[in-house]
Amino acid sequence: MGIPKRTFSMLLLLSVATTGLAETPQTTAGVSAADPAQLVQMAQRHEHGEGVTRDIDTAIRLYCRAAQAGSADAQYRLGWIYANGRDLQGNEAAAAAWFQKAAAHGDAYAARMLRRLPAAAPQAHCILASGRFYREPLRSHPNPTPQLILRWVQRLAPEYGLDVPLVLAVIRAESNFNPRALSSKNARGLMQLIPATARRFGVRDIWDPLQNIRGGMAYLRWLLDNFAGNEGLALAGYNAGENAVERYRGIPPYAQTRNYVRKVSLWRRTRPERIASRG
Question: Which has the closest alpha carbon to 68: 169, 137, 149?
């Protein structure tokens, strides 16, 4: 007998809500995330099997971290990997995207390589041998700026099938981007989770801003599924609890809840950068 759809959805959300908390591969032990040159050196060893087992995926992950930190050398080497295939199927668009980044940092070799390739992909992705995209794991911060929160939401929202403006509008309405916000009802953090809701969606540390966002997104995704995608009911449930919405068979007749739904619905129509301005 299969797992009921809602149960499966809940299990998935619980697993996602707790991922990304401490994702540091053993192969990078002792490598400073702030030292792109050291990351490139380690990546070269894994790419060519110098003193370690040859592992192209580990090399790509390390090059990717250095490239995202602004290393033109790493950007060029990623372009070379994708242009020449080796363990991967050649991906000329991805190669051109990375060569374009390296050339923008003044790498003359990358600029020459660009002349031989078709148009670059819209974004420079790190693609593993399996064909999956790799992104450096997010790292939390005790006091993130609204701009950092915006970047987190842009990364995480697709995992939960949520629109970025909707999540940002909820954060603005709940805490105005204050990670230490505490309500009279004991709701805490950026997305104002009460401890019971935090536990329900796998949040270990309710005051950790990144975990708080993940838990809030998991709850919002559950509400949307529970109310058949009706955004107004989901927002009302986020504010007043799903039981109140079910009891009144619609948005509860609470002035605070109805104002909340209107406010979030209005903000979510604006650009993400504007929502995150705290204006």
Answer: 137
